[in-house]
Amino acid sequence: MTSNGESREVLQIITSCNNVAPRKREKSSEMGALSREERRRRRRATQKYRTAHATRERIRVEAFNVAFAELRKLLPTLPPDKKLSKIEILRLAICYIAYLNHVLDA
């Protein structure tokens, strides 16, 4: 059995051999531990993380665009096929909701 200190030392040697880039060390009682920010930075630098992030972003943008297309179908405009920007769609939706509210109150 090795002591806890020896185990930690062996673990540091093994991990330092696998990493080519020098590591920033946290100024705490455990000199070999990486800071939370450094671990996060390393994880985000991997190709797997970047690919997953890009995929999530594409799905989010597609859902966003579909929602705007559905909203656009509900709004009356002249001419009906007029191309509107997203901000124009939102402004028109606000005005239309206010108008419907006014009609309901009358």
Please count the helical segments.
Answer: 4
Question: Would you tell me the structural class of the helices and strands?
Answer: mainly alpha
* Average pLDDT level: 81
Supply Rg: 28 Å
CA(first)-CA(last) distance? 84 Å
What fraction of the residues are assigned to beta strands by DSSP? under 5%
Describe the protein.
It is a single chain. This protein is mainly alpha-helical. It is built from four helices and no strands. It has helices at residues 4-18, 36-44, 47-74, 86-105. The protein is elongated, with a radius of gyration of 28 Å. Mean pLDDT is 81; it is low at 26-31.
Question: Which key terms come to mind for this protein?
Answer:
106 residues, mainly alpha, 4 helices
SSE order and pairing:
Layout: H1 4-18, H2 36-44, H3 47-74, H4 86-105
Offer a quick outline of the entry.
With 106 residues, the chain is an all-alpha fold.
